[in-house]
Amino acid sequence: MGKILVTGSVGQIGSDLVPALREKHGNENVIAGVHRTPPGEELKQGPVITVDVTNKSAVENVIKENDVNVIYHLVGVLSATGEKNPELAWKVNMEGLKNVLDLARDHNIERVFWPSSIAAFGPNTPRENTPQLTVMDPNTMYGVTKYAGELLCQYYFSKYGVDVRSLRYPGVISYKALPGGGTTDYSVAIFYEALKNKRYTCYLREDSTLPMMYMPDAIKGTINIMEADPSDIKCRLSYNHTAVSFSPKEITEEIKKHIPEFEISYEPDDRQKIADSWPKVIDDSEARKDWGWEHEFGLSEMTVDMIERLSAKLGIEKPF
User: Fold this and answer.
1) Residues annotated catalytic, as ranges
2) Which superfamily is assigned to 3-170+215-240 in CATH?
3) Is 172-211+243-282+292-314 a domain of CATH 3.90.25?
4) How confident is the model at residue 79 (pLDDT cuts 50, 70, 90)?
5) DSSP assigned state of 231
6) Among candidates 147, 284, 293, which has minimal Cα distance to 211?
């Protein structure tokens, strides 16, 4: 069996995906790829390699020296951060992806996973029940790289037979990784502030409904699509992938059921414009039909689990 390489392993998805893959395949068979951010103790339970995905030869060396045959390519500059430095977002997101796809083609990599995002949609995309195939006119550099990346993945599958699979992640909520510069990251920060300070100032309006997902469901979907038979993968752009949609007001009301003294205020900033260009609810029926996607966590279940696990992480007595 060849090794699995996870690039961007210290990011939000990677922090949970690497341990899940190691539990399934063995610690020694899953390599955590890192760049500038040092790995935490959990990632150090297996092999860790420093690699810059914009350096093609460096990535190639990792593949050859470690007999890599599956890649989860998670490296990416997120939406709000990308607007501050669009040149960096293009370089990391697009050059890094093309390097991985070229190497997957040249070294007969069995499968590649690459995450897209609801940021690939745009202001003219239908915002309610957004279909799999629809208007795509992203207005952020992050979104541009995600839509261009989807097209590139489809091209490498059609032209070279690279088995690359992708999900359009919604906002993903996790207690492990800190917020990392995404427009939906308020949904993580709000739990930290609710537990530590009992108050939070949100950078989105209270009615800004967006598609969301709890991390265990995101990891489940990611592994499931990679384990699906190739004949079941009908979409080679990226599958819509979601669980529940809610607004800052709705998640606040859910948190207040457990932390009644929690207070929130609203000071929308530049991220509001980004949020307003994204769907409110997306239709992921094709993922459910093609390879059996099902989510487990709704808003209430996620809130209880998030408070419980984050309380333990912060050393705070849980409020229930």
Assistant:
1) 142
2) NAD(P)-binding Rossmann-like Domain (3.40.50.720)
3) yes
4) confident
5) G
6) 284
